[in-house]
Amino acid sequence: MSATLTEAPPRTSNATSVPSAPPPSDQRKGLSKKELAADHPTWCPGCGDFSVLALYFKLIEKRKLWHEKITTIAGIGCSSRFPYFVQAHGAHYIHGRALPFASGISLSRPDLHVFVFGGDGDAFSIGGNHFNHTARKNIKMTYVVMDNWVYGLTKKQTSPTSPLGFKSKTDPWGAVDYPINPMKQAIAAGATFVARTTHTNPNHVLQMMEAAMDHDGFSFVECLSECVEFYEGAFDASNPRKGGAFNVVPAAHDVTNEMAAYKLADEPFPGYFGIFYKVTKPTKNAKEAAIGAAAREKVKGLKDWQILQQTFDKLK
Ligand SMILES: Cc1ncc(C[n+]2csc(CCOP(=O)(O)OP(=O)(O)O)c2C)c(N)n1
Ligand code: SF4
Ligand SMILES: [Mg+2]
Question: What is the pLDDT of residues 153-191, one digit of tens each?
Fold first, then answer.
């Protein structure tokens, strides 16, 4: 995590409006769930999304991220209602467009950690192109896709991750289109951190979100999150409490080996859980910051009008 995430906010007011200095950053208490929770979530009782929200609160509390250092962005869908329920800066944005919006925040505010939450439809259907491009640009943010294999908000249409044969309002005879594999897609698109977890294993969700947050680059986490209303039991085979198997990524797996990561991602359901892929590559944030610094160096000491004059002179 960058040191700036835990720094106290800058003091901009004068002494009369700020009677005493804020406590040093290492003495400031982490936010409690009470301070982080906004509206009561409107999800159906039993929806997997509750678990992801609770663990997000836990992560913020554990890592002492303060309101002014977090931003929570989402698109549209049940899962994308997420920012409504978080008492921090954020936006519930256009369907499928959470990532470009989040990219702008990430590039312009390096002191914030940008978290994006959303569903499988938002990420891989309408937002499919944005997913690929944000990943290949390696823009620093954490993207958690709450994958329930269905469109929940619009009441049961086939999603890009619905398995073949899934009966929905758009496929009453059963889905005929081959589903995408989010892990393979993320690796192929160029994401530099790719992990998989499931809402039924809270410790693991927290572990994956924390590792993703600490990654300097585009970090993607697929979190299976059951829609109890329109796809009940979808993930039972991954839940030991329902007779399924929760297989963690083997300790010998080399997270920097792309081919090995594909191999893990290719396993049939329930597959593996953990970090499949993690590499270090320069981020777009770092590259743009370097371009900006070099440009500023060239005009160092000049007034704004002199910089403008130089630009006009060049056009002559
Ligand atoms: C441009 C546009 N097209 C379609 C919709 C309707 N719509 C809203 S949410 C959604 C799908 C959401 O599915 P997903 O992202 O999987 O989220 P979930 O509700 O399952 O969490 C659709 C098709 C919309 N709001 N805007
Ligand atoms: S419809 Fe499904 S995804 Fe939406 S809140 Fe209900 S259980 Fe969750
Ligand atoms: Mg969905």
Answer: 999 999 999 999 999 999 999 999 999 999 999 999 999
- Rounded to 5 degrees, what are φ and ψ at 11? -90, 120
Give the H/E segment covering residue 147. strand 141-147
pLDDT of 15 higher than 80: no
| Single-letter amino acid, residue 19 | P
Alpha carbon of 76 to ligand 1 centroid (Å):
5
Tell me the two tokens of residue 208.
């994956």
Ligand 1: atom nearest CA of 125 is 15
309: Cβ contacts below 8 Å, ≥ 6 apart: none
Residues 71 and 61: their CA atoms lie apart, in Å, by 14
List pocket residues of ligand 1, CB cut-off 6 Å.
76-79, 95, 118-122, 126, 148, 150-154, 159
Phi and psi angles of residue 211, each rounded to the nearest 5 degrees, phi first:
-65, -40
Q: What percent of the chain shows pLDDT beyond 90?
A: 86
